[in-house]
Amino acid sequence: MTTNTSGVAQITPIAKSTDAAEVALATYDQLLVLLHSLDDKAWRAATECPGWSVADMVGHLIGAAEANASLRQNMRQQAWGARHRRDHCGNPLDAVNALQVSEHRSLAPAERVSMLSSLAPRAVAGRMRLPRLLRRVSVPIAQSGSSAGMPPRLRLGHLVDVIYTRDVWMHTLDIARATGGEVDLSAPVNARIVADVVREWALLHGQPVDLTLTGPCGGRFVSGAGAQRLELDAAQFCRALSGRAPGQGLLRQLVIF
């Protein structure tokens, strides 16, 4: 089998001006296909996110979608996170995540799927409405709790165009791993997300790259000369960069998911 080779510098970033909305909607669609396939036992399965079942993880995603669909909801959640960050290692994001899980704990599985399906297009539309001036604003990322070791700052434009989509995508993989469910990683949206992760990772560490990612959403990515060749599964690569799996060498450079 021939592996497609891409120059890292030639990968077009996911952005509002390119395909951010399209990628985000396709990522939600992929998640919803998986959720429709789950039985009641699967919803109770533990995930690799400490303390979260599959149902809890979906509750978090519903809460995030609510915040993206409504400025008032977003501000309420952020204010709650700021007030309760001390209960979560000083990390307001972890506090917000806990709130999202708690507020949807009473929902039945079918209600969770229905609610997320309804919210997804409104959440993506809300993200794309973020004004240009706010998109340039850089905000700090707490270096504690679940985001320890992540890049210390994040532009709001990158958050709404890319990071929320990565969150949905990675949690889709989390749920599949927890339940034995299947995700069609040959769908184009997966290769698009993986390539964008590679581009950002290479920019962050700034070293020559000769990376081969195996699996249906992988490829070969090169940048600079004299790089040591690195080969691993594409999904495992992203799990390492998100902090879900151990990484050595350049794989210790985390990327925000």
Task: Explain what the structure shows.
- The chain is of the alpha/beta class and 257 residues long.
- It has a single domain (5-252), classed as Four Helix Bundle (Hemerythrin (Met), subunit A), CATH 1.20.120.450.
- Helices cover 53% and strands 9% of the residues.
- It has helices spanning 20-36, 40-43, 54-69, 71-84, 92-103, 109-128, 132-135, 156-179, 188-205, 234-241; strands at residues 5-7, 138-140, 153-155, 209-214, 219-223, 230-233.
- The protein has a four-stranded mixed sheet with strand order 1-5-4-6.
- Helix 1 (20-36) packs parallel to helix 8.
- The longest helix has 24 residues, at 156-179.
- It is globular, with a radius of gyration of 18 Å.
- The protein starts with a strand and ends in a 16-residue tail after the last helix.
- Residues 29-176 form the Mycothiol-dependent maleylpyruvate isomerase metal-binding domain.
- This is Mycothiol-dependent maleylpyruvate isomerase metal-binding domain-containing protein.
- It comes from Terrabacter carboxydivorans.
Task: Give the tags.
DinB/YfiT-like; alpha/beta; 257 residues; single chain; 53% helix; 4-stranded mixed beta sheet; two-stranded antiparallel ribbon; 9% strand; Four Helix Bundle (Hemerythrin (Met), subunit A); globular; 10 helices
Write the layout of secondary structure elements.
Elements: E1 5-7, H1 20-36, H2 40-43, H3 54-69, H4 71-84, H5 92-103, H6 109-128, H7 132-135, E2 138-140, E3 153-155, H8 156-179, H9 188-205, E4 209-214, E5 219-223, E6 230-233, H10 234-241
Parallel strand pairs: 1-5, 4-6
Antiparallel strand pairs: 2-3, 4-5
